[in-house]
Fold these 4 entries.
Entry 1:
Amino acid sequence: MRSSDELFDRAQRVIPGGVNSPVRAYRAVGGTPPFIASGSGSTVTDVDGNDYLDYVQSWGAMILGHAHPRVVEAVAAAAGRGSSFGASTPGEVELAERLCAAVPSIEKVRLVSSGTEATMSAVRLARGFTGRAKVLKFAGCYHGHADGLLARAGSGVATFGLPASPGVTPAQAADTIVAAFNDLDAVTAAFAAAGDEIACVIVEPVAANMGVVPPAVGFLEGLRKQTDAAGALLIFDEVITGFRLGLGGAQARFGIEPDLTCLGKIIGGGLPVGAFGGRADVMSALAPDGPVYQAGTLSGNPLAVAAGLVTLDILAQDPPYARLEQLAASLCEGLLAGAQAAGVPVTVNREGSLFSVFFSDEPVADYDAASRQNTNRFATLHRGMLRRGVMLPPSAFEGWFLGVAHTEEDVERTIEVAGEAFGESARAS
Ligand code: PMP
């Protein structure tokens, strides 16, 4: 028996579904998930000694690749100085300064330990600041697993086809309004119906949890205008796009400043960090300056901050974004050509280095269109590529992640392998 099979058996006895985060269970693609023993650069190695070229990259967090020597060194040095004090440390100030300097709309920022905490806290702050209750979100966008944000969510909620989640109270659900991504008319209608009750609009400026769906021209501008007109706050959830689409994230790429921004993943260099920040007047409503409460024993944890700081340093010293975008563009071109050669219709969406492949013969601009893709064909592609040593995200409702450790040779090999695997997908119904 393979070690991964054995571990998964043991895991299923003591961990629900055998995993600590649902999509990792591989239910959408079939098979036993490989347990990872180690990673280096663009490659991960499982406990049975199989190497995989990795396009999960911890869901985007590992933009520098696995076990980058400078990150490893920084974390080891920080651990030697003590791993948590429950008191402030110098690195937190430095990381906050870096975030304020890099991200256009952030004047003040608070560090937390996950993306979920960042979005949950930003929404509470928006409610406290405006004195309003309702939140407008978009179908297929995922903002972590806080109660009010799970309605028609992307990521695992989409993967498993759940409309929402039991355990979310009717009151929480009633305070969440859901519109279609890229549909400004639906936003206009929501504001017309409940404008003075809406505290905030929260959006992934490039949706990356229903597969990747870029914003239509004018969509983000429209959200900025409508929130301004209604006195609601605009929250960009840049947990994925932050430091991935550029040092200033999606807001710098598209030239739109939200009131609040949520960050995660890359800013922690692979350790648990999130952050939310924005307008100084809004952030000042947080305790201890203001009445909106938010806190965390491990917030600004010294190991996580050390990993984040060195990651942001490396990205700032030698910004990899033009190269990453070029790599992603060649990969997308190659994937499209491979699918066409195999006679299987696909739509490839890309924004910068963020991209995904939908088994669909129509453009994908929102969650309804993403839901019409052929997920069986994706599952076949995933299995075919895994067998050939390429690890894709184990769901059709996720983005694919490239990092600075990926090379042109990696991309060429992926295109070659995909060409073979698309042939298998074409035969799946
Ligand atoms: N927001 C977005 C856009 C995300 O992609 C995610 C996680 N993939 C989250 C929030 C939640 O982050 P975490 O899993 O760290 O709680």
Note: Residues 59, 114-116, 119, 142-144, 155, 204, 209, 237, 239-240, 264, 274 surround 4'-deoxy-4'-aminopyridoxal-5'-phosphate (CB under 6 Å).
Entry 2:
Amino acid sequence: MSAATETQAGPSSRIVDLLDVERVRRDFPILHRTVRENRKLVYLDNAATTQKPQQVIDRIVRYYTEENSNVHRGVHYLSEVATAAYENARTTVKRFIGARDEKEIVFTRGTTEAINLVAQTWGRKNVGAGDEVLITAIEHHSNIVPWQMLCDEKGARLRVAPVNDAGEVLIDEFQKLLTSRTKLVAFGHASNALGTINPIRKMITLAHAASAVVLIDGAQGVPHLRVDVRELDCDFYAFSSHKIYGPTGVGVLYGKEAILDAMPPWQGGGDMILSVSFEKTTYNALPYKFEAGTPNIAGVIGMATAIDYMDSIGIERIAAHEQNLLHYATKRLLEIDGLRIIGTAAEKACVISFVLEGVHPHDIGTILDEQGIAIRTGHHCAQPLMMRFNVPATGRASFAMYNTRDEADALVAGLEKVIEVFR
Ligand code: 7TS
């Protein structure tokens, strides 16, 4: 069935104009290459990283062809052009997530670096012996390990809110773990391993009622959901460019201005200072205080182009298309004998983790790959979560705006071949 004829009304989505998936696909050159033995590529590993549209690729080429220069330094023409493009990108990001001011947008290497920045600056200043940091059982390692490192250093305690068998955070338990000792609460907007979309607005309100500061790991949120940090009232929100059709090696830390302002800098170096002498250094204003050294200028500019691209399609349209695919692919996968979906939350992003009776997930991935189908297999950087569900690993198909029902069908056909080989 062509996507243009699909109904786009997911369970919780209002009816929106259809996304023209064939037109979107034309923008992504890599989707038209073949892999392995002349196989059509079926790319279902979007939670790991998304493919890039020609618009983003062209913008990066144009930057290096016509604009390359360092930012915030030169009085010369190219430096002014590069600085303007870099700072315009900050405005694009500000608008994209509904921040109040450009000062609240810090460019980082990605979600991981953004979370580490908060742990190493806000955390080291504000978390002490006996304090607690609260996370949930479905976090990615990058929203576990930085807090563990902080807690180890400070003699603080890491608490973990449990999930039910569907992979939904138990809100009562989450609330019970919020006490006067809780200094910071960090959780994902959506889970990369299960797809669960957390009720983050409610969780933020509960955490604030306990006077805790809240960080949202938005790596799997911004690709699929409209984000408005002011409406959410989160204190920090972190995400990566490469999961929203932009380049790798760049991402964003949003922080409320007053909180960022009170935080000590992290890395020292060029651009983050106002003046340096051997006796004393004064630091630059926000957000530059947190951007030491030459940044990933081309990456930041490419990320802004990716955001413009998403905006041109419309996040509501993308979300409706993906929800439609989620319901279709879930239904089709459940027709397979012996397949069990891990992660059955009522609210999910288009991520489907599964196990197949009698077959190791690694073998599933390898046999699908021979057919040109790319999924991820393993623990998805969420080992504690795998333990919670008593599986060593899963296969994970994760969809993006350019995926189709035909590709979901190809996955099902591929899995049937896997079963032929193993049974
Ligand atoms: N948080 C979540 C929820 C993620 O899914 C990821 C990456 C990260 C943080 C880290 O982002 P990074 O850009 O700094 O690496 N998730 C995945 C994945 O699911 N497969 O590969 C990377």
Note: Residues 229 and 361 are 37 Å apart (CA to CA).
Entry 3:
Amino acid sequence: MITVAAHPYPYAFPPGRTALVVIDMQRDFVEPGGFGAALGNDVARLQAIIPAVAGLLAVFRARNWPVIHTREAHLPDLSDCPPAKIARGNASPRIGQHGPMGRLLVRGEPGNQIVPALAPMDGERVIDKPGKGMFWATGLHEALRAEGISHLVFAGVTTEVCVQTSMREANDRGYECLLITDATESYFPQFKAATIEMLTAQGGIVGWAAPLAALEAAVA
Ligand code: TIU
């Protein structure tokens, strides 16, 4: 086991049974003209974590530990997108409509691709998920169980939406979860802080949190 200095207490993980999950570092959320911007958000905050996420990817890739990337993505006919989700937020443009990076949150569109600096490498799993959580309608739990994965390290955006939902889904399925605090971000700094506090309160009710440096020190 490798032990990371984490909050609320040290996080121990077994190499080989631990995967990195990078949530939704796609142009739709991180670049101007995407879905995040269409909802009225300033995307600059999210761009700032790209170097930390790259550093986290480097830790896992250097050791050939499994890496999973997710994208929030719908089928071109939107048959996997509930009408309530399309209507929500009164965004302009909406999910499925055209923006400067193609149709918003639609599989295969330029805006749906992971930012080039964090592009998936051969052999890394890429999950297109129709929901905020990574287990809803993806089959991912069955795949991870078959591979013996028991621990998940989380990064990506946004902290309180897709990252938190995925970490809660993972916790309910029995995974031991660590969130890397400088490799996740929200459009709202207060929501990021509150999310980390909520996930780790009550003795780590959902999981642990630690900065990238703590993980790097633990694996060195
Ligand atoms: N709006 C927002 O904060 N997030 C999302 O819609 N999706 C993800 O977090 N990926």
Note: The radius of gyration is 17 Å.
Entry 4:
Amino acid sequence: MFSYRHAFHAGSHADILKHLTLIHLVSYLQEKPVALTMVDTHAGAGIYNLQDGFAAVSKEAEGGIFRLLKYQEAGNQIPESIQKYIDCIQSENSSGEMNVYPGSPFILARMLRPQDRLKLFELHPKEIDILRHNVGELSCAKQIDVYDVDSFKRLKGLLPPPSRRGLILIDPSYEDKQDYRHLEIALEEAMQRFPTGCYAIWYPMLARRESAELPDRLKKICTTHKRSWLHTELRVENTPGERRLQASGMFIINPPWTLEKNLAEALPIITKALSVGNGAQYLLKSFEAKN
Ligand code: SAM
């Protein structure tokens, strides 16, 4: 427990899938002026140095954000949704160099309107200090609460949000295989209190039973609660024995109707831009519940 540091994975292909989806969800939910509460159940440190420390050691951003930028610099056209994601990442890099990569807390914080609130959970004893410091530097810090408690146990206590408009990002590290079970329990509890919330769950595609079964288990929860879902996966490589993460997925409960079209435009380009060898592919499926 607590060996996971997100800095090793900052700006990777998995972050691109997660953060591109997240930006679209927030933009859609902010189309109405009513206050939006955003919860990031697994926050990490908030923002990461790509030139130094863990990220510079792992170099995962080379196969992620840097590869995407090279694809664009080579003159390839990219759709607006990908441009919006790139603009968001570049806005943290005023020098023009890609020195830092914002994690989900910074991406969400930068999108806060005065009426919105952001709730961040982080359990790692070192990450929480870095997160608190980073959040303290933001001009919108007063709109953000940081909790150093187990989000699987405490998420339900924040739901439903006062305005009944909420986005919940659930992005565990899955370093403990119990995380899969804990996620399901927390999600069940959350959906009982707040069935109309938008839930965005990220997961790694690993050669592990719990990981392979997760999408079907999430679909079952949606069936029980009569909720719509969207399921997407991005594989950038298919090399047996490779230790690096080669694929990940996002499962969205109560997705906005615009998300599928948005991802249908973005995913072929992202897959092409990030592919290593011939094994790159994406998946995009959805189900609309009749209520
Ligand atoms: N959401 C971040 C982003 O996109 O930039 C990345 C988060 S990282 C995948 C997962 C984080 O969750 C780690 O920093 C880990 O310490 C933290 N964590 C693990 N279990 C937790 C729990 N039960 N409650 C809150 N945080 C937890």
Note: The chain has a mean pLDDT of 96.
